[in-house]
Amino acid sequence: MQMKLTLSKLMIAGLLCAGIAPIAIAQDTQSSKQDVKDAGSDVKDAAKKTGHATKKTTKKVAHKTAKKTKEGAEKVEDKTQPQ
Q: Basic and acidic residues: which segments have biased composition (predicted)?
């Protein structure tokens, strides 16, 4: 009786493992595909964020350069004015 019970438990455990294995493999494949998609989206978002930051910084530098150039030109103009 004890042997039959142990054998039954072993068979049930084996069937459960055999039934779960294909599901686990299918989930891994789908998960890998989704991981690649997520990585691609993250790279896209990072590139967009970097582009926006570069644009903002470039505008800031250009405006500051123009302001300082104007200040320098005014200073030279003041020095070259006849007194």
A: 34-48, 68-83
